[in-house]
UniProtKB/TrEMBL annotation:
Organism name: Promicromonospora kroppenstedtii
Protein name: Diacylglycerol kinase family protein
Family matches, as InterPro entries: ATP-NAD_kinase_N, Diacylglycerol_kinase_cat_dom, Lipid_Phosphate_FormReg, NAD/diacylglycerol_kinase_sf, YegS/DAGK_C
PROSITE patterns reported for this sequence: DAGK
Annotated GO MF terms: kinase activity
Amino acid sequence: MTDQAGHIAVLVNPASGHGAGVDSARVVVERLRARGADVRVHRGADERETVALGRLAVAERPDVVVVVGGDGTVSSVLGPLLEAGIPLAVVPSGTGNDLAREHGIPLDDAAAAADLALDGARRRVDTGTVTAADGTVRHFVTVLCAGLDSLTNERTNRMTWPRGPARYLAAIYLEWLRLRRFAYRLERADAPALEQDGYMLAIGLTRTYGGGVPICPGADPADGLLDVTLVQAMGRFRLLAFDSLIKSGRHVERPEVTTLRTPAVRLTAPAGLVTYADGEPTGPVPVTIEARHRSLTLCVPA
């Protein structure tokens, strides 16, 4: 590699990966400075401060913004990044890291991921927006979900015990016991509305969510389309058996699963259903989800 100089803004979310982002950031800064880059570090004390610092980092017009964190951290600072048109490099330090998985960015080598800011290829990829009924717009880079998965996330966030992965497993079990079906309605400009009762709905730019689960296995992150996967209503124990199919990506071959592609969709469902994207809450239904075709420049392996 030939060392290159340049202004690199490094944005650190200390909460990512239960503190893993702090350790990764140290490696990133040392690596980039050793290669001659002018590195300016922006480290928030919490998520809100991280977002504010992200805007400050973009305003300084760096050559590249390096986000040390997970998919949620990326999406939280995506607005100003897209407005400025500045390339993004990701050093995955979150829980799922599905954006990095999709594009072959090293998951366990912070130095190698940091190198992409200097000599990685520049790839134009899609992003998505979620517009709430009140006009609030949020961005995402992987998958939005609404149903059993989003309710599990919501319950996990409310629980204080147990800690660690056991809390998520407990939340899944509790939501499965009170399993609810939802009358989904998907309105599209390019096709008739789809009305279908179901348990799970995923709308993806990328193939995976939740740390590599291929919920939208046919998704192309640069085609300008949303991949929709809807798991229809079925018996509780039959749904439980679907878990292995989803983890293998073979669920889309089943007649109980509806799939479609569209550039934009308006989602309505019963009151109380929440949506999550990139593992973060994006508000209750109704929402309008749109793909932004190749709107982000991402630093990826050549």
